[in-house]
Amino acid sequence: MAYVARPAIALPEHVVTTDELCDDIRRAHPDLPRLEAYLRIARATTVKTRHFTRPLSAPTVSGSATIEERNRAAYEDALELAVTAGRRAIENAGLEPADIDAVVTSHTTSWTVPSLDVSLVHRLGLRPGIRRMPMATVGCAGGAQAIVNARKDIVAHPGAHVLVVVAECLSTATYNHADTSRESVIYKTLFGDGSGAVVVSGDPRWTGPSVRIEDTFEYVLPDSMDRYQGRLDGTGLHFDSTEAATRALDDSFPAVRTWLAGRPLDFAVVHPGGPRILTDAAKALGLHPDPATGDLSHAWASLAEHGNLGGSAILDVLARTFTSPPAADSEGLLIGFGPGFVLAAAHARWIGDDS
């Protein structure tokens, strides 16, 4: 069995409101046709605040930094957040760095070799012979996919302790005034920076609750390559989508329901990719839809307070679930979505303090 400890979340210091972003977009594009209509749509993301690693006025955020500068900032800042989250996650699991047998990392917002997995071996003091599973282009599916991969490692190595670390600096990637499409304005206000980490163990050492992973599922939606995708040019990394992207979740959920095969869902940890994703997920899974009191309230709260944190967002939702948990022995779902269109999911059981 694979057990998930309480996640750790690391957020940068600069809190930026949606009002501040809208004002900055107006400043950068005063003559953009339909700008106010775009901003109204952007506000409908329900994001109130998000954290950036650097001030909104920084050249690598709202300025005209080169792609080299943006790439360097995205990696250096993400690494610092990853180190903080990784250390806390190991502590949450009652372990020492030398106890970690494998590390799974996800980082999409910069190109760096060596990457996050190797850097964390040095910075966290992990064993030189640790198994490494780096993921570089998974995007928003990163956290869920990393947990799925951690369970695979535990199946192959019973009793192993696997550290999952996801870190993204989306402010340097998607907040780019070279982009002026309706979708880009929405993404400027949707995303935030942050890192999440968690230990998945076949031999849990911590006290307190955990999530036991009982089954996993991975799915690539056919003919969906262009629905969400990254694009690199001389001004930086960009994130694009098509109108068909809004239907991706609905198109994927028949496969999810077939996999679930009627198993009960007493709780759900869903990637807060945006309001449409959360409302569609609630409908598809037969969950109570109210953002404040429904089954996805933790996801809605994460979205409002932190924005979409990319791959680490689902770990933030999971951390909130630990703070306000379901009943012991409840069955639930953890699911994340990403460009491709792909999803990774786990059917899980909540293990309470006394279980």
Automatic annotation (TrEMBL):
Stretches assigned to the Chalcone/stilbene synthase N-terminal domain: 10-204
Record's keyword terms, sorted: Transferase
Pfam families linked to this entry: Chal_sti_synt_N (PF00195)
InterPro entries per record: Chalcone/stilbene_synt_N, Polyketide_synthase_type-III, Thiolase-like
Domain of life according to the entry: Bacteria
Protein name: PhlD
Annotated source species: Streptomyces solicathayae
